[in-house]
Every structure is written in structure tokens, then in C-alpha cells.
Amino acid sequence: MKASIKPKKEGMGLLAIGITATDTEMGKTVVTGALAAALRFRGITPGIFKPVASGCVRRQDGELISTDAEFQMKCAGYPDTLRKEVIPVVLEAALAPAEASRLEGITLQPERMIEGAKACITGHEISVLEGIGGITAPITEDFLVKDYFKALGIPVLIVVKPILGNVNHAVLTSYYCQQHGIPVLGFLVNGWNEETAGDLEKGNLYYYEKLTGLPVLGKLPKMTEEEMNDPRKLALITEQTVELDKILELAKGMRI
């Protein structure tokens, strides 16, 4: 594994990376956890934060929990007591937060979400902040994911999958972000299989870069349950397949 990165606090500033995707189920949670695990085993305690999660599950004691939060906390080495700081609002319905919160009679407050994210950023050398769904997903009726990231002033990494139709979604997502003043670091491919990658998969990589001018900054492979559940193994895989140093350097140039 590579040597630890320990940014100097004096004159360095704080780094924060937003994680968005071309759609839901692209792997934002996996990527967030993978980056958090890699930073953790470089000797850095990463900040992790997601303002709201829907599709959460109830434990036997009735408590509603986010499996996203559980995974990311395990990757980052957080204790259970910090669950509310990682994802402060949990919703049961597997819908966009705007609709899930309406059905459950919960009022979402964008200003509180922004405050929570900023507290995470200012409390850590490097933070990884996962969005919700795609970049235009409605958090409330009038507050979209793009508004959240723009309010934070942080660059985003776009998670993609090497599947048919994803080039179109990747191009539109990157352009939409840039048009709304959100810097884009590049793309991170989730679910890559080097042994079976053919014309479709390799063509996707080519056109992600050619049509946007943005780099592909890593290709996380499909992982076993054992690898996903072992933060050290996940960190090693991330170091081997993701250009983490380059991501951090790019983020430094776009820092808040």
C-alpha cells in the first residue's frame, strides 16, 4: 500500500470531495466507502456525510437505520455513536427524499443539511460527501442535489458503470454540473471486470474522456462480499485501482 498522505494544516486548507452519479444504484455508497477506507489506512480519519437517506430498514428494536451509513462507518472506522452525524435523517420509503419525506410527514431542512456537511468538512483534513441519487434528484421540492453541492462549493466525482447508455448519462451529468458552477474532478468507474471487458466497456472509457475532456480516475472492480466487509482489503483494492493521489491533487486545486 502507498505511503500515508498527511496534508499540512498550515496553508493547506481542507479537502472535500462530493460523490454523485449518473443515476441511482451506480455505486456512490461503495465508492464513498472505498475512498474512506483507503484514507483511513493512510493514517487519515476521513469525514463522511450524507444529508438524508431513503429506503432505510428497521431493526428488530424498531430503530430505522441506513445500511449506507453502517457500511461507510465501518470503512472509515467510526463508532456506532456517530451514526446520526454521518446520516442525520433516515427515511423508510425507497423514494427520492422529497417524496419519501412527504409520505412520512417529515420536513427536510436544506439549511440544516448544509450546516451538517460544513461541520463535517471543517472537522477533518479530507471529507467524502455522498449525494443522493443523481445530480438532479429532488431532496425537497425546491432543493436538488446540485443545489446542495453548489452551496458547499466542493468539486464532485461522478460514479459511472461500464454499461450501455451510460456514456450519454455521464456526458449530460458532467455538463449539467459545470453549467451550475459545480467543478467536476472526473469519473470513477464502479463494477469493472478487466477479464471480461469488451468493446462496450472499453468504448465507454474512451468516450467518457473524449466527449467531456474529463479523466477516468479509477476502475473499482466487482468485489466479493468478503472484500466489501473487510475495510483493509477494500482499502488495498482501492489503492490498486483508483488514482487516489490524483483525485486529491485535483481536489486541492478546486478546494473550498
Description:
- By secondary structure, the chain is of the alpha/beta class.
- It has one domain (15-253): P-loop containing nucleotide triphosphate hydrolases (Rossmann fold, 3-Layer(aba) Sandwich), CATH 3.40.50.300.
- Helices cover 42% and strands 19% of the residues.
- The protein is built from eleven helices and twelve strands.
- The strands form four sheets. Strands 2-7-1-10-11-12 form a six-stranded parallel beta sheet, with helices on both faces. The protein has a two-stranded parallel sheet with strand order 3-6.
- The radius of gyration is 17 Å and the shape is globular.
- The chain starts with 14 loop residues before the first strand and ends with a helix.
- It catalyses: (7R,8S)-8-amino-7-(carboxyamino)nonanoate + ATP = (4R,5S)-dethiobiotin + ADP + phosphate + H(+); (7R,8S)-7,8-diammoniononanoate + CO2 + ATP = (4R,5S)-dethiobiotin + ADP + phosphate + 3 H(+).
- This is ATP-dependent dethiobiotin synthetase BioD.
- GO terms for molecular function: ATP binding; dethiobiotin synthase activity; magnesium ion binding.
Please summarize what this structure is.
This is ATP-dependent dethiobiotin synthetase BioD. This protein has 256 residues and is α/β, with parallel strands linked by helices.
